[in-house]
Specification:
By secondary structure, the protein is α/β, with parallel strands linked by helices. The protein folds into 3 domains: about 70 residues, Arc Repressor Mutant, subunit A (Orthogonal Bundle), CATH 1.10.10; about 110 residues, D-Maltodextrin-Binding Protein, domain 2 (3-Layer(aba) Sandwich); about 100 residues, D-Maltodextrin-Binding Protein, domain 2 (3-Layer(aba) Sandwich). About 40% of the residues lie in helices and about 25% in strands. It has 10 helices and 11 strands. The strands form 2 sheets. Strands 3, 4, 5, 6, 7, 8, 9, 10 and 11 form a 9-stranded mixed sheet that branches. Strands 1-2 form a two-stranded antiparallel sheet. A hairpin with a 4-residue loop joins β1 and β2. α1 packs across α2, α1 crosses α3 and α6 crosses α10. The termini are far apart.
Amino acid sequence: MLDARRLNIFAVVAEEGSFTAAAEKLYLSQPAVSQQMAILEREVGVQLMKRMPRGIELTPAGEVLAQRARVILDSMTELESELRRLVDAPRKVRVGAFSTAGAHFIPLVVKAYREHQGTALSVVSANAVEVPGQLRDGAIDIGLVWDYDFAPRPPEEGLHLTPLLTDPLCVVLPTDHPFADRDEVSLLELADEPWIVRVHRRPYREAFETVCRIAGFEPHVVFRTEDYQAVQGLVAAGMGVSLVPALTLVVERPDIVSLPLAPPAFARRVSALTLPRAERDPAVARLLRVMQEVSTAVSSP
C-alpha cells in the first residue's frame, strides 16, 4: 500500500526535478528524501526514477505515478477534511497567514468574520512558501500567499488562487535624508545609496536586485536581514535606505519616513490559496468573501 507521506515527497521530487530542490521545499535533508524514494521504489516494486549527475529523470512508471500522485493526494486531503467536518463542532476554519498580513489585514478579517455564528476561526503563522504543502496536508483551509507584479509566482498545480490585495512597495528613509520631505521618489534617484534588504526565500531571493535592474541600476547592498522591524531600525540609524511593502509599515517608527515610488512603481500582490473544491464548504466560502470585502475596504483611498 502506498504511504501518503512518501507519495507526497515523490510528487515534489517529480515537480522539482531533483532531490536537493525537493528537500529544500519540504524542509527535509537531501539524504532523507533519497531514502524515502528508495523505500517507495521497493514498495511498488519498480524503478520510478533514474539518478542523473544533475537531478533525476522519471522512468515510464515514474511518469504514470507523477501524473496521478497529486490527484490522489488532493482526494485524500478532501476526504480527511470531510470526515473532520462531520465531528467538528463548531466548524473550525484554519487560516495560514504570513507575518505582515497577520499584523494588519488578518485582524480586520477576524473582526469582520466574528458576526458569523457556529464557526470558529483559527489563524496560524505560515510562510507563503509553506502554504501549498499545508493545504495539501490538510493543516489549513485557506492560506495567504504573495508574489510580485514584476515576477509572478508560477501557479500551484491543483490549487485555486483568489486575488485579494495589492500591496505597494515603499521607499524607507531616515528623517534627515534630503528626500525625506518629498511626496514620492523614484528608485533611480536612489541608485547611489547604500541599501538594506529584507531576505526572502526562493523564488524571490534576488527580487530587490531585479527591481533595481528594471529601474536601471545595480544596487549597493550593505545589510540583509530577515526582519522588517530590523530594516526600520537600521534605516533610522542611518545605515542606508530600504524598499518594503506598505503592509510592513502599519507600525512605523517616528525616526523614519516612508514614501511611495514614482514611476516605475512596483507592488506585492496578496492572494488566498485553497484546495480546488474548498469553496463548496460554506464556512470556507464565507471567509473568502469576508477576505475580499476587507481587501476592497483596505485598498480604497
